[in-house]
Amino acid sequence: MKTITDNLTTISNSVFFRKILIKVLKVTGPKLGIEPGDLFEGAKGFAQFTEEEIEAELRKEAPFESYQINAGAKSATILDAESAMDESGIQFLESELQAELEFEIESDPELQELIAAEKSQAEEDILDSKYKHSSEENAKGLITTMEVIIGATKVAIRVIKRYIKKRNHDFYPTVAEETMRELYVSELGNWLWGNMKQKAADMWKHSDFEGDFFQWPVGLYFIKKLADYQEETGKKLTIDLVGHSAGSIAICELIKMISAKGYDIKFRNIIFMAPACRTDLFENTILKNPSIFSSFRCFTMSDEYEKKIGFFTLYTQDPSYI
Question: pTM for this structure?
Fold first, then answer.
């Protein structure tokens, strides 16, 4: 939590991140037919918004909260990509997006300075390695304009792909997420989630419970004690499992372990709240072992609420919110 809080604070304070975000919003909006409606005074399409107006919108608690998609305003290349049976249509977009982003980035003196300037140590620590490239030993932040243009193009392509495949989370959250993924959090995110998934599996791993008890897998120890208690007393316990976010991963791994080891333990309810487990893990554990539990319920959020919570911290001064 401390790592995530610190990193989000660093990113929200980064003018470099904010400038790239604005460029991608400005270029992808018109292509997707985004019309923010009453966000600004007067009726005008996204392509007519100035960067100052976009900047003002980003200062709101919920940026771009109200908008609509005008199918008639979508670019021809977007319509071609949507009608294609495969991703071939996307390829035509790449050169178009890169040309527009190249113009936007190269004609912005402030962004040019930010690209060449050294970043803060906190930002340097979480930047993706490809944005730390330098021809000079021990130099910091010396990335080229073309590297940034290519990165911004990748962000724009991913945003558009998600819209075409209907995997977006509304306009601003999707652009912000993909910009963060490109510049900062891809490797960090993989490390954090990989670490949590490994811990969720390790807590149920086999042990003879000898030696240093600090090294014993706590989950398996707990389940063993429950099984021993039931056997000694002859009482069948009523047990409910409730997992929020990564807790759902721990429950899936628990079900996998019980199925493999044959423990005589049954659960009444399994309840997931905004689960973070992958669908394949869920299928191979929960769905394949219906005899281990009586009922399953899942609670999650709509995109409307997800985006308000997930991205609220990006531009607030209270990172402790999360």
Answer: 0.65
